[in-house]
Structures are given as C-alpha cells and as structure tokens.
Design goal:
The chain has 167 residues and is mostly beta strands. The chain has no helices and 10 strands. 0% of the residues lie in helices and 67% in strands.
C-alpha cells in the first residue's frame, strides 16, 4: 500500500489576549506510522500520535479534539476533548490481494483535560479492511471503544468509513 512510513511534527506558538489578560500558548503535535512487513501477505501497522496545548488557562473551544478513524477507533469523530493526549494504533494485516487487506484493531489512548481536572485511559478493539481503488484507499472499520471505568458493551461499537485520495 502506498505509504510505508511517515513522521509529522508540528509546533505552533501564539498569544491569547482577552479583556483582562494576555498569555502565551504553545501547541505541539506529532504523528508517526510504520508498516512492518513480515512476509508478502502479513504485516503489522503501528501508529503513534499525540498533541499537547501548553497554557496557563484554557477555554473549552481551544481544547484538542480527537476520536474516530484517524485517532482512537470505537469512539465518535472528535468527541473527546483534551489539553494533552496520546494514541497508539496497532493492526495485524493480512493481504488478500494486491489491493485488499483485512486487519485487526487494537488501540490505546491516554488524555488529560485540565478544565475538568480529569485524565483517562481509553481502548479500542475491532476489525476492518482496506481496499485500494482508483479513487484512493477506502477503509472500513468496526470497532468498540471502552474507557477504563466503563464495562465492555457491544452496543458501544462504531462503524468508521474513510476514503483517502490524492489529487
């Protein structure tokens, strides 16, 4: 499949000024992934991404949003709010043909929200497939998201669809 490894690091610096105060803010973001080919049909995909917002105080609309197919699967898109988060995605992939693979999903995440003064560990489990088409890479994932203090429920499962194309 087209991308074997990738590393992306971003930093942002700025000032937030309100009626009473002015303070500096820093945003750090990292996203890295790698496919480890075991043989022609089997591979292991590993991705780590995370972000942190450094500030003396926070507004809710400034918080980092994550969840969904591009971060921790089994949760709704951008449904989780954090001042700091880290996600590890792993997949065991079996390539059926040159354009189709099936895979397992095991995801783990940690996040902190300083507005709510909370932190939590999250887990996602499931399966899916990837299909390389002329339009791009189509991905279908079925995953169940779970937090550390909530028991596993099949009704919490989510279906994630994605089409990644380059033009």
């Amino acid at each position: 499949f087209p991308i074997n490894s990738r590393v992306l690091i971003e930093t942002s610096f700025g000032d937030r000024t309100t009626a009473n105060t002015s303070e500096q803010q820093t945003l750090l973001f990292i996203d890295a992934n790698k496919i480890f080919n075991l043989n022609l049909k089997n591979s292991f995909y590993l991705r780590a991404n995370g972000a942190g917002l450094i500030s003396d105080s926070y507004f809710e609309n400034e918080l980092l949003r994550f969840g969904g197919i591009n971060s921790i699967r089994g949760f709704e898109e951008n449904s989780l709010y954090a001042t700091l988060y880290g996600v590890i995605n792993s997949e065991y992939r079996y390539q059926i043909s040159n354009s189709i693979y099936i895979h397992t999903i095991i995801d783990a995440a940690y996040f902190e929200n300083k507005i709510l003064n909370s932190n939590q560990k999250l887990f996602g489990y499931g399966f899916g497939f990837g299909l390389l088409t002329k339009a791009g890479l189509f991905r279908f994932n079925y995953a169940n998201g779970k937090s550390e203090d909530v028991s596993f429920k099949l009704s919490n499962s989510k279906v994630h669809l994605s089409l990644t194309s380059k033009f």
